[in-house]
Specification:
Order of helices and strands: EEHHHHHHH
CATH class of the largest domain: Few Secondary Structures
Structural class: mainly alpha
Oligomer: single chain
CATH topology of the largest domain: 30s ribosomal protein s13, domain 2
CATH architecture of the largest domain: Irregular
Distance between the termini: 77 Å
Number of helices: 7
Largest sheet: 2 strands, antiparallel
Amino acid sequence: MRIAGYNLQDTKRVDIALTYIYGIGRRNVVGILSKAGVASDKRVKFLSEDEQRKIQKVLEEYKLEGDLRAEVNANIKRLKEISSYRGLRHSRNLPVRGQRTRSNARTKRGKRVTIGAIKKEEAVKTELKKEAK
């Protein structure tokens, strides 16, 4: 089954398979399937053509995949252009929503880079060099 340019996995349940589409989460799936009148415990490969059409018709009301990604990127770009605090955090690649950065934020900031600290052996070597002069 293909919806919004994405092939749903045949072996998954319908409610789980729909969440693979960008813009549809677990909360939205319940409403989508109830509007379409499809049981959530059915597997994708066992859906009839009529049920597939009903699901696709309900999903036309939602903003999905490319359109949604474009809108989110436009919002971030707007924040950067007006140089709001959130826009600056986006441009500096730091957490935007108030999370602490002193000890966490590894996924956003990347691998740790030690600044200003040297290893004990290196400190001893530099001291020996200074004493020799």
